[in-house]
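Protocol step 4 of 6: structure prediction from sequence.
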Amino acid sequence: MTPRAAARLALATAALQLLVACAVSPSAGPEPTSAPRVQLAGANAPLSPQRSAAFVETLKNGGKPTSIFDRHLAAEQSANGSALITGNKVSLLQDGDATYAAMFKAISAARDHINMESYIFRDDEVGKRFAALLIAKQRQGVQVNLIHDSIGALGTARGFFESLAAHGIRVLEFNPVNPLDAKVPWNPNQRDHRKLLVVDGRIAFLGGINVSSVYSGDSSTVRGTREQERQPPEWQLPEPQQQQRQLQQQQAQTPRDQLPWRDTDLQIEGPIVAEFQRLFFDTWLRQHGEPLPPRRYFPPLRRAGDEVMRAIGSSPDAPYSMIYATLLSAIDSAETDIALTNAYFAPDPKLREALRRAAARGVDVKLVLPSRTDSWLVLQAGRSYYDELLEAGVKIYERRDALLHSKTIVIDGVWSSVGSANLDWRSFVHNQEVNAVVLGADFAKQMRAAFERDLGASREILLAEWRRRTLDHRLAELFARMWSYWL
């Protein structure tokens, strides 16, 4: 490294350290002093202590020591303090085609109401199909209520939403960019990043998929060639070879806008649906949406399956992020393995420390992260933390040949979470998010199988290789890291 290059790197590092020192981690809330008695609730009321104990016993399976499930059950209760809901059915949906098909089927069967909340709602082919179906249901007397984020829908013509409203659909714009349209104190940095659909108060969908044609497709059909798998990563190559590789990629690599998006959603039935319905109405009321027509928004809900779940919503108006607190608690409770997939990884100091601690106590920590993305700054900011995580024993993999957009985690084969929250400052500090936690070995097996498929389509990042990356890559990471709080 030349003296001038070394000076540039030292200056950038000093500026970064100054900026990071001034940043404040998102608050995870009060630390629990002791684990309270675990409370479970069914379709109508909390279960008795005897029934709760019996139900927990039925969940202790899958070859794991029973203490692991007990530990996560107690930790989950400690992090939230509310009842876990039993008797739910959960279906894992992979990628846009499967998710949209399930949503269209549920919407077509709606008889009373449809509540939908989406960060992005495009007026493209997929958006128009949703619109046509929602308008058709509204004409049949099914009340449709829609929340869309103002920033997320900037690329959508205003007339698109006006057309929906003209047919009787109640449309609410979250935190309008135009302050004259705001019904609450204007704060354009606070966004509604949730993706939530509730049909008839009986079936819910949530996860990472917005309403946009970019999510159409199946990422499982795309795999790299053996030649690609044998090639060393770009950051390991000398600069002349890097330039040659980049030229080859420009000529042969699939353009980013043609890559399939890899995402994960859930379809949920059972008593927990009422909790997701309440989150929708909480947003509607806090944004001062117009009064909604009366419907059976909270019908009686019967047992639909065997899953124990918790619905978790977070909002920048809350004292701390419940999703963030729950995630830290689950990671700190991990005993055997953590399998984490996330689209936008720019972790704060507490989360990085939790991952390092887990690896230090022998937990097998694996992260599947993007290799290509629609946010260059977040990608580079996340990569700036690879050194410290790899050195601590965390294993990092980058998904190839797809735009990774999933936000999932499975721990110890018993604790799983899927939702809209990324692992970055924006999700934990500035955004409204919604996640679901599922406790149990059966669903965790499905989650682990999906993780292994992503792992098979990923390249492992090795510490020795990573440390041979060029100065240009390091400077890009440092620059992005300085902006990570605002990304």
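Step 5 (inspection) to follow. Residues 254 and 401 are 8 Å apart (CA to CA).
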